[in-house]
Structure formats: C-alpha cells, structure tokens
Write a structure and sequence with these properties.
Layout lengths: L4 H9 L17 E7 L3 H14 L4 E4 L15 E2 L6 H15 L1 H5 L10 E5 L2 H16 L5 E4 H7 L15 E5 L3 E2 L2 H14 L3 E3 L4 E7 L2 E7 L2 E10 L5 H6 L7 E11 L9 E4 L4 E5 L5 E11 L7 H14 L8 E12 L5 E4 L5 E5 L9 H14 L13 H4 L16
Parallel strand pairs: 1-2, 1-11, 2-8, 4-13, 11-18
Antiparallel strand pairs: 3-7, 4-6, 5-6, 9-10, 10-11, 12-15, 12-16, 13-14, 14-15, 17-18
Helix pairs in contact: 2-7, 2-10, 3-10
C-alpha cells in the first residue's frame, strides 16, 4: 500500500476533513471507444480491465445513481468457487484467485477474509452430493475438505449439532479459501483504479435508449445527452432485461428480489460462513460484529430493492433452527437486491445479436463473487470481439442450442451462498 501509517494517523487527526476525491467527476464526452452501462462492481471492473489489460482508456462508465448502490452494496459479501460443472468451476476459481490478490492489484484494501465456506449436510443424500462435489472440485484443482459432525461441533460450538436437532447435521463440505470481501471497498477500489487510468466515471447519468444503425450499436441516449461509442457493454445486474430491451432484445431472464438482513453487532461468535440447503439459509459475521444472513428468493417478479415480512420470518426461523442461541439477538435492518435469474442458473457473458453490444449478467446468486472475473472476461470479449476461454460457454445462444449449464451449486439448491 502506498499510504504509510503516518499518513493514516494524519488523516485521523484532522477529523476526516478536506479529503481529496477518490475519483474525478467529469462531464461526459461526445464519444468514447467503449461505454460501460452500470457503475457497480461488474461495470467498474470491466472498465478497469479494459484500461489496464488492453490499453483501451477512452472508456466511460455510466451509472444512473451513485456508484455501488445497486447489488454491489446489497449483497452478503461471500466469495467462493465450490462449483461442480467445469465451466463454472474454472470461472469462479479464476475469480477467487483474483480476489486473493485484489487488494495488491488495486492498491486498495478490499478486506478479503479467507474464513472458509461450510455447506452443511443433513441427510445421507446430502453427504453423497457433498462428496461428489468435493471430488469434482479437487479434480479441478480447487480446495475442498469434508468435515464430520464432530469436527464441525468442535469448530462451531454455537451450531446445534445434537442428534435431536430440527435439522440433524451429519457433516459438511468446506472450502477453506472461500470467505468474505468488503463489498463497498470493491466498488471504491475499482473506481479509483479505473479513474487513475483515464476512465471517465459518470454518475447520475441514466441510459434511456440505444442508438443502433444498420444492426450495430453506435451510442446511447442518456439523461445527460447522447453519447457515441464504438462498443457498448451492459453490466446492470437485475436490470439486464430492461437495458437489453432498449436494443430490441428479450433475454431469458427473470428478475426477483433476494433479501438479506443483519443482527445487532456482538463480539466474535462465528469465524466462518455457514450455509444450509435444507433450510435455505446462510450466515457469517461481519467485521463490525453483525450477523449477516439470508435465504431464498421472494418468488415474484420485481425490480424493487425491498422485501417482505414472510421471507424475513423464514430466514430468522432457519437461523434459530441451526443456531438457537442467536434467538436473543435483535434484527437491526433488512434490504433486498435484484437477482437476474437465467433459466439454468449460470450467467450470460458475451456478444449480443446487435453488433458491438456485449453483456455480463444473469448472475442469479453468484454476482458478487464473480465480480473480478466477470470484469476481466467481459473486458476481454469487448476488446477482442470474441470470448475469453473462461466465458466461451456462457453465451446467450446456449439457450436456443440446448447447451445449458444447469449448475445446482448456483444458489440454495442445495448449496446456498
């Protein structure tokens, strides 16, 4: 890191006053080589890798609000690569390797914590599935370890591992390198790094339409005027269908609300990520001491960033079934993110039918953990007008061609976040 201990002390003593801006706030130019729609983690990572890896610095990131206030700031910060099918396994393992060195890459502490991700097994069938997945992971060079009930009970004493538990625990599959990353730090780190390479980050600039001529995208209409572009990348998470519709396309995606919530902060009680497919639940503890938890989708289509009480009750009851002692805690706040759910649970990263229009989206439950790899391969695809080997299988055409990637590890069926 460039900043010394003395500079940190100096900033603290001056009361956080007069800090310089971390990135510029430029007026949009009339034309760019590449326009990236979406100022969340995926869009900012795409812009950074376009500039850093491919030398394309005439890039604008257009964000309708402020950076990182969409799904990037509304997830539960978990990163992992415990996937079964090879396209997802290799992609998410590449992403996890980028996470491991991202603080050094961006010269910004993203607070990656390899605290482990433990998927609980409650039945003999769960054990068989965990063993199968773990073996597939190890064959793909990904860390995996099966833990017995006794090993789990000794490690996580708050977890109800008794024989009379509502959901008896028979074991679990652990990925030791999985863990958590500070979500807003990811947005800030990529934004600052991209800005330093000349990328224009333009906030409060909503895209309202696409300019398409002879089957080729030539720019976008925005609330701050028309902006021309040689190429356009879409990275808007749950609003992928809305933006694609501006180009006359209908994506095989539904948007749903996924809720999460945090308890009041407490002293350290949980030093790993615990998930259970049987109860559709996952939980970790933040650096501030809050228990961060979530569960299943709200199964109605919505673009609202809020949830409802029945799903909150489901998550809390699941929490208490696994961690009875947590019943004394008070729930502090809840929120919702918008999941763009594809038909097979795997993303779409690649070229679209309109020439020079690209997208990264359809992330289902896997969007945050994919952030660095998504940006890397999306940038590659834009720069080369062809997919990187890691996203070659994640085409839009696979749905018409019967080449779906039905990854059961994409969400809580049976392996939740």
């Amino acid at each position: 890191m460039k900043y010394s201990l003395f500079s940190l002390i100096g900033n603290a003593l001056r009361g956080h006053a007069d800090w310089p801006r971390a990135w510029r706030s430029p007026e949009p130019k009339k034309h760019y080589d590449v326009v990236v729609i979406g100022g969340g983690g995926h869009g900012l990572a795409t812009a950074y890798y376009l500039a850093h890896e491919h030398g394309i610095r005439s890039v604008a990131v257009l964000e309708k609000g402020a950076l990182g206030l969409g799904n990037t700031g509304r997830n539960t910060t978990i990163v992992r690569s415990n996937y079964h099918f090879e396209p997802n396994a290799h992609f998410y393992e590449f992403s996890l390797k980028l996470w491991e060195r991202l603080s050094h890459t961006l010269d910004f502490n993203v607070m990656y914590s390899a605290r482990g991700v433990l998927n609980l097994a409650h039945t003999p069938a769960d054990i068989d599935a965990a063993m199968r997945r773990g073996n597939a992971m190890r064959l793909n060079g990904i860390d995996a370890k099966f833990l017995s009930r006794d090993e789990i009970a000794a490690w996580i004493p708050n977890l109800d591992c008794s024989e009379n538990a509502r959901f008896p625990i028979l074991g679990g599959l652990l990925q030791p390198r999985g863990g958590t990353v500070r979500h807003d730090a990811v947005a800030w780190g990529y934004a600052r790094a991209a800005d330093s390479l000349g990328v224009d980050i333009i906030e409060r600039c909503e895209v309202t339409g696409m300019r398409i001529e002879n089957g080729r995208v030539t720019g976008v209409h925005t609330t701050r005027g028309d902006i021309g572009a040689n190429k356009v990348g879409i990275a808007v998470a749950g609003h992928s269908s809305v933006v694609a519709a501006m180009a006359g396309m209908r994506l095989p995606i539904e948007s749903h609300v996924l809720q999460a919530m945090v308890s009041e902060p407490v002293k350290p009680v949980l030093d790993t990520v615990v998930t259970s497919g049987a109860v559709h639940f996952y939980v970790s503890q933040s650096d501030k001491g809050e228990l961060v938890m979530g569960g299943d989708l709200d199964f109605y289509n919505s673009y609202a960033q809020r949830g409802n009480l029945p799903r909150i009750e489901d998550v809390v009851s699941a929490c208490l079934a696994l961690f009875p002692s947590f019943g004394r805690l008070r729930l502090m706040r809840t929120w919702g993110g918008i999941m763009d759910m594809t038909m097979d649970g795997s993303p779409i990263i690649g070229k679209l039918p309109v020439k020079h229009l690209y997208m990264t989206g359809g992330w289902c439950y896997g969007g945050f953990k994919a952030t660095p790899a998504s940006g890397y391969v999306h940038a590659w695809t834009i720069a080369h007008d062809e997919p990187h080997p890691l996203n070659a299988k994640f085409t839009l055409e696979r749905f018409a061609e019967g080449r779906t990637i039905d990854e059961k590890g994409a969400g809580p069926y049976p392996w939740a976040h």
